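Supplementary Note 3. Input sequence used for the single-chain structure prediction.
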Amino acid sequence: MKKRHKQKSGFTLVELLVVVVILAIAAAMAVPMFSGAAGFQVQSAANMIAADLEYAKSMAISRQQQYGIVFDSAADTYQVVDQNDTVIEHPVKVGFQYTVNFSGDSRLKSVDLATANFDGTDTIKFDYLGSPLRSDGNPMNSGTITLQGGGTAMTVTVEPVTGYIRVQ
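The predicted structure, written as discrete structure tokens, is reproduced below.
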């Protein structure tokens, strides 16, 4: 007669260690996602500003007239304006003005519009060629927008002459 061996059920030490390592890696990836919400909001706001600057520039080129953006760092807002400094209608939210308010938007409430400086003013315009101008209509020498929130800071830069927009 053959002897039957009793099989023991359970996990080996190696299997337990593999599971612990996998859980540690997953936790290391998840913790920054929960703690960095403000950082993601700042990055989203910087990308939104860059897109709106590109929109104002493309409107100026396509319509052959000045379009720009007026920033208000005290209120954490900005508005897209036409050549008469009138706030334009939002292209998606029909019937609404093109105004962005970070503190009024729950998705961006951690964002602080720290500074908007275009040669000493808070307004940037684009001419019919897409070149950036100061609020007085003269060519811009430098332009930056700084956003902060949750220990994260980002800068949106508009290059003179070309109007190239960069998020850093």
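The two ends are 78 Å apart (CA to CA). DSSP finds two helices and nine strands in the chain.
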